[in-house]
Amino acid sequence: MSYQSIKEEAYEANMQLPALGLVLFTFGNVSVVDRKAGVFAIKPSGVPYKLLSPEKMVIVDFDGEVVEGGLRPSSDTKTHAVLYKHWAQIGGIVHTHSTYATAWAQAQRDIPIYGTTHADHLTVDVPCAAPMSDEMIRGNYEHETGFQIMGCLQERKLSYQEVEMILVGNHAPFTWGKTADKAVYNAAVVEEVARMAFLTESIHPGVSRLKDSLIRKHFERKHGPDSYYGQ
Hints:
The protein is about 40% helix and about 15% strand. It has helices at about 5-20, 75-85, 100-105, 115-120, 135-140, 140-155, 180-205, 210-225; strands at about 30-35, 40, 60, 65-70, 90-95, 130, 165-170, 175.
């Protein structure tokens, strides 16, 4: 079977990360799923972005096993596999260590919803999953990271189809979407929202969260049944 289409899509999506300033060196990865084939294409581990090509993307199944490719897949592959296996409506996943979002993750804090830029994308704070337990760390670490992400959303009664971004405590952000392009977009959004929130708290440490009426207005004008943003 030819996986050329998802290899090319994964390559293009991965190349957006350095272009958007979301990664340094070999940090970060993007994957793209083929639901019918039950596989996804993901960046090879430790390969600089300038050396990537569609042919170097690795094809992996939903158990994290390599199906095709001569290079080792990203060290985060099993996290991607868990999410694809359990979340049927996602088409792409992004993991970065972008500066501001990662700083909030290291601080083990949700990113508060302070302004309308945030509300254009979410009606809640960007959640930060609790740091992983020692038992999970000693086990199948990357596999457990997937369950750490899913568990956080379940505990907070949040839908992965509505909240497409999360911080993993002490680690960094993960984002997803119906397509790889949307997942990359969400990775850029969570970094920008994190930067804005940091600056907001620096200017006004006692700042209040955005009021509910503005949250609802800005979210619904883009995503509600009577949305009017865009063409």
